[in-house]
Amino acid sequence: MREIKKHIFLETISYENRHMSPRNLYIIRGEERSLMVDTSNNTERDWTILKGMIDALGIDCRKLDIFITSIRIIQAWYRSCRSLEPGHL
To answer: How far is Cα 1 from Cα 51, in angstroms, rounded to an integer?
Structure first.
């Protein structure tokens, strides 16, 4: 992960042994809320990278807005954050 502009972080995910182009995952960190622009795929490796970025930046996923460019990751992300909602702990 690298900071490409102030508070804008980028991780490029490459896929070995696949016929896919590298994907970019951006996080724009704000004081109250942050924004993730996700172009990744629904793989265990992508999920690990995404979660690692959020953890490294100290972002609470309940305060993270998401702009998803791929429908495949929506359900996994929703289930993960839902488990953190009050009453689900």
So the answer is: 12
